[in-house]
Amino acid sequence: MERKAVLVDDHALLRNGLAGLVRELGYEVLFEADNGKEFTEKLNKDNLPDIVLMDINMPQMDGYDTAAWIKRNHPEIRILALSMYDDENAIIRMLKNGAGGYILKDTEPAELKKAMDAVCSKGFYYSEMVTGRLIHSIHSMQEENSPAKAVAGLNERELEFLKLAATELTYKEIAEQMHLSPRTIDGYRDDLFEKLNIRSRVGLVLFAIKNGIVRL
Asked: Which of 57, 96, 119, 212 could disulfide-link to 100, CB 3.0 to 4.6 Å?
């Protein structure tokens, strides 16, 4: 039985070409939409797609808001974000809002198929750009039973460091802003890695977002 897909992208030519490719990859395309608003209007509750391939930058209702709407109203629908940009903040925000994978629009057809199949069957796709660890961090945080406990174990300086880590400041600039030495900042970072079982700065940012320490 063919899996069902929907394409949401405001670039009609690119979307039409992608629709043809998706059909060649063995998926039925239920419909196409220019933006999230049109998607929500066209969606048929009696014939839901298995996966939505979605652009991020769209008028009226962008990919972030659309992903959040799907997660809230139809969590069984899988989402694969498509973008021209490998922007870390965009990746974090889309995955946080419910996307199971994030790939670039110039991805080879073989990888697109691999991504779609994986998102449909497992709920997520590990690409070179979005590591499995990053997605695992998000899902671990979503499934964490007592996130408040982890936050409660942090002191004020660690919380301040987490907020600054979620900005574009380098670790050296964070040290200057907190009036501490770079070595002390490295110590904060390493202590948080150990306390929170996190291995990267992106992981720290995700923890901070998930627990309301910072907001996107």
From this structure: 119
Mean pLDDT, all residues of the chain = 86
Residue 216 lies in a domain: no
CATH number of the domain bearing residue 206 = 1.10.10.10
DSSP the chain: --EEEEEE-S-HHHHHHHHHHHHHTTEEEEEEESSHHHHHHH--TTS--SEEEEES--SSS-HHHHHHHHHHH-TTSEEEEEES---HHHHHHHHHTT-SEEEETT--HHHHHHHHHHHHHHS----SSS-HHHHHHHHHHHH-S-HHHHHHTS-HHHHHHHHHHTSS--HHHHHHHTT--HHHHHHHHHHHHHHHT--SHHHHHHHHHHTTSS--
- Residue-wise pLDDT for 69-116, tens only, equals 999 999 999 999 998 877 777 787 888 888 988 888 888 999 999 999
Q: Specify if 89 maps to a domain.
A: yes
Residue 135 lies in a domain: no
Residue 144: pLDDT above 60? no
